[in-house]
Design brief:
The structure holds two protein chains of two kinds.
Chain A lengths: L21 H11 L20 H10 L1 H5 L24 H4 L3 H6 L23 E10 L6 H7 L3 E3 L6 E6 L4 E6 L3 E7 L2 H17 L7 E13 L6 H7 L4 E3 L7 E5 L4 E5 L4 E7 L2 H16 L6
Antiparallel strand pairs in A: 1-5, 1-6, 2-3, 3-4, 4-5, 6-10, 7-8, 8-9, 9-10
Chain B lengths: L1 E2 L11 E6 L2 E6 L5 E4 L6 H6 L5 H4 L8 H16 L4 H16 L1 H4 L3 H18 L6 H8 L3 H15 L8 H10 L18 H17 L8 H16 L1 H4 L4 H8 L7 H16 L19 H6 L1 H8 E2 L17 H7 L15 E2 L3 H4 L25 H5 L5 H11 L2
Parallel strand pairs in B: 5-6
Antiparallel strand pairs in B: 1-2, 2-3, 3-4
Helix pairs in contact in B: 3-4, 3-6, 4-6, 6-7, 6-8, 9-10, 9-11, 10-11, 11-14
The chains are: A alpha+beta, B mainly alpha.
Pfam families (chain A): TBP (PF00352)
GO molecular function (chain A): DNA binding
Family (chain A): Belongs to the TBP family.
Chain lengths: 304, 409
Amino acid sequence: FKDDFSTSPHLFTPMSPYDLELPIQAASQLSQSKELLTDFSSVDLSFLPDVTQDNKEQNLSEHGHETQKELDGSLPSNEESGVLMDESSLSHPGAAQPSPEASGMCPPLTPMTPLTPASASESSGIVPQLQNIVSTVNLACKLDLKNIALHARNAEYNPKRFAAVIMRIREPRTTALIFSSGKMVCTGAKSEEQSRLAARKYARVVQKLGFPAKFLDFKIQNMVGSCDVRFPIRLEGLVLTHQQFSSYEPELFPGLVYRMVKPRIVLLIFVSGKVVLTGAKNRSEIYEAFENIYPILRGFKKPS
Amino acid sequence: MAARGRCPECGSESLVEDAHYAQQQLVCAACGCVLSEGLLTTTYTDEEHLREVAYSQSTGQKEQLSRCLQRGIRRVQDLCKVLQLPAVFEETAVSYFQRALQLPAFRLVSLEKKELLGGCCVFVTCRQRNWPLTMGTICSLLYAKQDLFAGVYLSLQKELGLSVPALSLADLVTTHLNSFQLLQPTANVPAAFLEDKEKLLARTMAIVELASETWLVTGRHPVPIVTAAAFLAWQSLQPGPRLSCPLARFCRLAGVDLPPPAHLRLKELLEILLGMASQLSWLRGFNLDRKMVVKHIGDLLQHRVFLLKNAFSQHGEEQQDTATGQGSPSSPPGAQQQGRPWAGKGQRGGTLRPLLPPCLIHPRKRLRPSAPSAPAAAPTGDEPISDSEIEQYLRSPEEIRALRKARAW
């Protein structure tokens, strides 16, 4: 598939006289950049409010001179290593693309693409849902935990078990651990903004209890997302081919633990096709990690 | 006896070790200055000063092996001997253990964990050389709790950066069956229950392979599967007298533990076999149930490739058009009879079901959380917070008074 023109054609206007040459350039890039897996196939993420234009531009600039030849707003090319090309997809991805940019631009480009592997067709169309956000904030004042537990309805404090007050609020539904040093951990929110709002509410509660609480250094420490690829996965095969990243111990845990290096995310992959992603500091890391793992998992979807 | 060193006061070299009452002292013979007295500590430097020659010094050992390390190494060696591992395994395990103990992550852990560390090193060595050893075996040898063992194992893997290949199921079957006592005649085993090892091994392997092809193995603990497969294999080799023997009795006779999930695995295996049996032309007439299908396991295994293809709808394929209906050769009526298995839910009791892991065939009812309400109001996190909302979380003065009275805070 090395001399495949898959990635580029749908990015050119049909009128361009350079059509014939550019694909070859693109192909040579393909063979050089084998180490890059699908990177930010922001094709499908363009409708998400969180994936800003910055992301797309960054992606475009990565694929250097290739993209300069293309029209603005064109789809970034997805560089896919040859190994991951899905030989079963014969149809051109451009035709199937739901993205608005593609539809305007890729009428009859297919003559050049005998087979299109991979590229945009691999972008999953599945978006991981955020399930939990853990954040910390510094209230910057010493707190009397016993006092707080006495005056607040939603607090529990058991010094023998744990040295912090556990406080919960209903909206957004979260839990906070408030320490006597004034530091606080907020967990349970489903989005970054909700986590920040919840942390502010806790700080306000502490303020109303009479402490001079501030709101310093709010930081998201961990984000957990999950999604479903909708096909069963052969974990034994995955651990064989990706041994340096995976750890699969059925005696200990039914899922496979995949430690992705870039971005630094830990994925729990289960035989049912459900994937849990954790360890992210940003939402984009979760999306990126999933787009990286999806082609790998697709490779293991086989009728047995 | 003369000691080395110089007296700090007079510079003379004649130092003597002498005892003042029961206390050892190092004294300068020239001026009588006491250089050091007997100490209760046993640090190496002190011992050197008092000129007690350590064992390792007298034997010329350069490295100082701490007692803890020595004990650990001996434990690892004992484990290897008990498991009858080759000598090269022992060396590898000991080297891992020494490397691990030097790391700060393991140097200061409890003694219990250090013992587990030795077991982990043996376990890792075995896995790396494809020697089928399960965690359960090691834990029982060490009298360890499995979750503690798991923790030490995972951190060992991380700290030493070891890559541990997956457990090979085929080898596990072999070693597991080796421990079965139904293979030799003993007092309490009726003659009809004895079985030839090779035949049992071959058939158990075939059943385990079938299980792994039909998604019964991925994500599950391997030992219950092997136990259930061995039971089915044993029953099918001589169904007459053995069909009435339940799994629990079989394990007792064989002298192995019955792991709790084995019953479930057995049920799943039988379900698969029943599905396959419905495709065997000469069995279609019978109304097979779970017990009777055992008799035909031999045939089912022989034709399993064909049967698997026909008995279960493959992922992504349309329904098979092979004649699997009630003997009718043309496809449409046959296809009609097969349900619509593509939806991903199994056809319970139907002739066809998708070949999926059991967790997808019988999904547990889960409360799906409602869709995120982000569209409702794009939250910024900086919305104003109303006082009333916060006040609902604060206790009223009456409450506090009542609490104070109740708890005497």
